[in-house]
Amino acid sequence: MSYIIDIKTYMIYTNGGGEVLAKNLKLKAARAAKDMSQKQLADAVDVARQTINLIELGDYNPSIKLCKAICNVLGKTLNDLFWEGNENENNS
Predict the structure, then answer these.
(1) How far apart are alpha carbons 74 and 36 in whole angstroms?
(2) What is the CATH number of the domain that holds 80?
């Protein structure tokens, strides 16, 4: 099994038990660029703050509907925040 990770999007780390987890750094950076807290973003998309935290930690896979709502609030596209790199790069 192999993994392709866009290092600008995700940071790989282990949780002490050897399990590999990925953080979504693009979402966190986009939120910070808008000077929004996790709570403010959560309120804007009608979810709990913990949901935003879990998405940023890579521990929760949000629905497309939630991804689109987050993108709308942050002025980003799905590609900007949630896709793991460029498909063309993977086909070379």
Answers:
(1) 9
(2) 1.10.260.40
